[in-house]
Amino acid sequence: MYDIEIKNETIEIEIANTDVEINAEGFAVIERKELEIPFECGETIGGNKAVVVRNGKIWKADYRNEEIQALPIGVTKIAGEQGGVIPVVFYGVVNGFGGLTEGRYFVGEGGNLISHQPETGVVIEIGRALASDILFVDVKLIVRR
Question: Which of 32, 46, 105, 142 has its Cβ near the most Cβ atoms within 10 Å?
């Protein structure tokens, strides 16, 4: 819980995985922390792949599966065999990529990340490439019109 004073009233707020500070001007400054959690692999999964969490295990994410829009989505840091436990980043930096171009990345087929929105299926922006080997994970569901 954080106490924030606003116009002579005190409001308590709770934001998961977040720091809240009051700056010198009296404004609330919200800073999200990196979130990495180890999960058991439900199947063999490569490193730097988009995954979903289902039934306590991770599985390769795929834009063609509409179920993914209701599941937690992250990116693996390393490869893992079925039954192995590997770290998954849900918000923050993942290193070790090769050949990324700066810009937005989306969930593609079989856990792969793609640099363009898929024309069909579920559109999920997984993050942004900061360099050829670095992805900043910040998942966003994009609704088609």
Answer: 105
73-76/85-95 β-pairing? antiparallel
Half-sphere exposure of 112 (CA within 13 A, CB side): 11
Give this prediction's pTM: 0.79
13 with 44, same domain: the answer is: no
**What values do phi and psi take at 73, rounded to 5?**
-125, 135
CATH of the domain at 68: 2.40.300
DSSP 69: G
Q: How many CB atoms lie within 10 A of CB 67?
A: 12
Residue 59 and residue 113 share a domain: yes
Please list, in sequence order, all residues whose beta carbon lies within 8 angstroms of the beta carbon of residue 123, skipping any fewer than 6 positions away: 63, 106, 117, 141, 142, 143, 144
Answer yes or no: do 20 and 61 share one domain: no
pLDDT tens-digit map of 103-132: 999 999 999 999 999 999 999 999 999 999
Joined tokens for residue 51: 């995954």
